[in-house]
Amino acid sequence: MLSVLALEAALEAFDGLTMRDVRAQSLSLTSTFLDALHALAVDLPVATPLAPERRGSQLSLRHPDAFAVVQALIARGVIGDYREPDIVRLGFAPLYVTHVDAVAAAAHLRAVLDGHEFERAEFARRGAVT
Fold this sequence. Notes:
Elements: H1 2-11, H2 19-39, E1 58-62, H3 66-75, E2 81-83, E3 87-91, H4 99-114, H5 121-124
Antiparallel strand pairs: 1-3, 2-3
């Protein structure tokens, strides 16, 4: 019974929304993040298609120390994931993530890169719990 109640509560985020609305919000969030990266001069190659019609609700960026970058972001409260060989992947769940969150994630990424936080030993260890 509790699991059904939890599911109902989670699905309330969809109330009054169409899939077109959700998709539009997704594209808006990823575009906002890309714009913020540009404004902050974060010069990482984007592996995800830039054309909005070709991308989903995530963006993948390339960095030679991607694993450590993701760990440093997680330590700052920005949850992403790592993909071999060099992908920092950030998802933008359109029902829960805000445009403020997207801009903040870009600012955190800039800080991680500028401060070389990804070079800290605790972020380089695979299997490390953060």
